[in-house]
């Protein structure tokens, strides 16, 4: 075989992409931020209606946490960082199935 010739190689490749796993941004209750401020952050950043933002804020306040967004991991990490920038406590976790 000449140095430039390539051997016949039979490759089996699976090009199917793995399904995107959903992730969640969880905002946690804290002793620092006012409820009105949390509502304003949810409305300003996520564009939620007053009613939805208030519902999420109440979940944070009464249950200690609320899932405020669901989607691809990278996007959820951006959202969690934005919540940190607003002074809220937030984490990213894999969504329960």
Structural summary, described in words:
With 97 residues, the protein is α+β, with helices and mostly antiparallel strands. The chain has one domain (23-94): Ribosomal protein L7/L12, C-terminal domain/Adaptor protein ClpS (Ribosomal Protein L30, Chain: A), CATH 3.30.1390.10. It is built from 3 helices and 3 strands. Strands 2-1-3 form a 3-stranded antiparallel sheet. Helix 1 crosses helix 2 (50-63). The protein is elongated and about 75 Å long. The termini are far apart. The mean pLDDT is 89.
- Please give the CATH architecture: 2-Layer Sandwich
Helix/strand-derived category reads alpha+beta
Number of domains in the coordinates? 1
- Average pLDDT figure: 89
Any idea of the CATH class? Alpha Beta
Helices and strands, in order, run as EHHEHE
Low-pLDDT segments, ≥5 res: none
Strand sequence of the main sheet, in spatial order? 2-1-3
**What name does CATH use for the topology?**
Ribosomal Protein L30, Chain: A
Number of helices: 3
The biggest sheet amounts to: 3 strands, antiparallel
Strand percent estimate = 15-25%
CATH superfamily: Ribosomal protein L7/L12, C-terminal domain/Adaptor protein ClpS
N-to-C terminal Cα separation, in Å? Answer: 55 Å
GO molecular function: peptidase activity
Family: Belongs to the ClpS family.
InterPro entries: ClpS (IPR022935), ClpS_core (IPR003769), Ribosomal_bL12_C/ClpS-like (IPR014719)
Protein name: ATP-dependent Clp protease adapter protein ClpS
């Amino acid at each position: 075989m000449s140095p430039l010739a390539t051997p016949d190689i039979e490759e089996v490749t699976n090009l199917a992409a793995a399904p995107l796993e959903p992730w969640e941004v969880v905002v946690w209750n804290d002793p620092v931020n006012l409820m009105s401020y949390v509502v304003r952050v949810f409305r300003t950043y996520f564009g939620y209606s007053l009613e939805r933002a208030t519902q999420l804020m109440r979940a944070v306040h009464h249950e200690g946490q609320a899932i405020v967004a669901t989607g691809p991991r990278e996007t959820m990490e951006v959202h969690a960082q934005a919540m940190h920038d607003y002074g809220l406590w937030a984490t990213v976790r894999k969504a329960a199935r």
